[in-house]
C-alpha cells in the first residue's frame, strides 16, 4: 500500500478506536485509571491443545442470525453497530447461519476462533468508578469464544470405571463469555473475582506475599465481616478453588482448560491480554452504548438454542446448551458502601 494511504488508514483506525472509546462519553478516563486497568489485566493460559480459540465480536457476528424463542428470524445480517438491543432483545438468541451436523458437532470454521498472537484478539474491559470513601474502581475483563466444547459423560451405567451403554459429549455451547474482575481501592488491588462458568470465587490481595489469597467461593457469598475485616471461610465447597492467584509482574495468572474455557489446565499458550484491551466505561442499564459498542446492548443469548436435551433430566445438561448472556448481565462485586457509611463492606 502507498505510504500516504497507509497513514490515512492508520488515522482512520485511531479515529475508529477513539470514537469507540468515547462513543458515549459520560466522562473520559484518567491516565491513572487506564494505567491500573492495563497493568493488572490478566495473563490467560490457554491449553496447549486448545482448538476453540477466542475471537473478536466482529469475527463472530457475520456467522449468525438473530432469532426469537420460536426460531423466527428477527435480524439477518448484523454488525456490532446494528445488532438489536434493549429489553426486547432479552428473549432473543443468536443462531449460526450454517446448521450443526448434530447437537454435539462442531463442523463450523467460526468455532475455532482467531490466533491470539500479537494482540489480535481484544479483551473487552468494562470499568466503573465509584465516588465512595475508597475511590473504588471495578474492572471486568471479558473474553469471547465462539464455541465452548463440553465434556464426555456416561449416560448409560458406569460399571467399574467404564461406561456400559452410551457416552455423550454434553455441555457444548455456541458462544462463550468468560471473565475475571478486579476491585481496586485507592489505586491498590483489593479483591479479585475468578470466574469458572457459573462458579466464582473471590481472592483478597495480600501485599506482603504479592499475590491474591482465597477468600470465599460464590456459594458462600453471605459471609460477614468480623471486626471490619473480611474473614476466611473455614468450609470449602466444590469445585475446589486454588488457594492463591499468582502474578506475572502485576498480571494475575488465570487458566483456561482445553475446550471448555473456564477450568484450570496446565500452562500452554500465553494470552497476554494487555496487548489489546478495549476499554469501555460502565453505563447504567437504562443507558445504551453507541457506535461500534452498540453490540453490548444485546441482552439475549450469544449462541444457538439448546438441542439434544434427552439426558438433561439425568445429567442436568444438553448436548448443546443455550448460549450465554453478554457482559452487561454480569455483576462481579456488590456496590460499595456510600461515603457516609462507616461499615466496611467489600
Ligand atoms: C419492543 O417491542 C414492542 C412490541 O413488539 C414494540 O412496541 C416496541 O416498540 C419495542 N421497543 C423497542 C425499543 O424497539
Ligand atoms: C507476532 O509478532 C512477532 C514479532 O513482531 C512476529 O515475529 C510474529 O510473526 C507475529 N506473529 C503473528 C502470528 O503475526
Ligand atoms: C469389576 O472389576 C473387578 C476387579 O477388576 C471384578 O472382580 C468384577 O467382576 C468387576 N465387576 C463387573 C460388574 O464387571
Ligand atoms: C498475608 O499473607 C500472610 C502469609 O500467608 C499472612 O500471614 C497475612 O496475615 C496476610 N495478610 C493479609 C492482610 O491478609
Ligand atoms: C484437547 O482437546 C482436543 C479436542 O478439542 C483433543 O483432540 C485433545 O486430545 C485434547 N487434549 C487434552 C490433553 O485433553
Ligand atoms: C437512568 O436512571 C437514573 C437513575 O435511576 C436517572 O438518574 C437517569 O436520568 C436515567 N437515564 C436515562 C437516560 O433514562
Automatic annotation (TrEMBL):
<keyword id="KW-0732">Signal</keyword>
<feature type="region of interest" description="Disordered">
    <location>
        <begin position="323"/>
        <end position="346"/>
    </location>
</feature>
<protein>
    <recommendedName>
        <fullName>Vacuolar protein sorting-associated protein 62</fullName>
    </recommendedName>
</protein>
<dbReference type="InterPro" id="IPR009291">
    <property type="entry name" value="Vps62"/>
</dbReference>
<dbReference type="Pfam" id="PF06101">
    <property type="entry name" value="Vps62"/>
</dbReference>
<feature type="signal peptide">
    <location>
        <begin position="1"/>
        <end position="28"/>
    </location>
</feature>
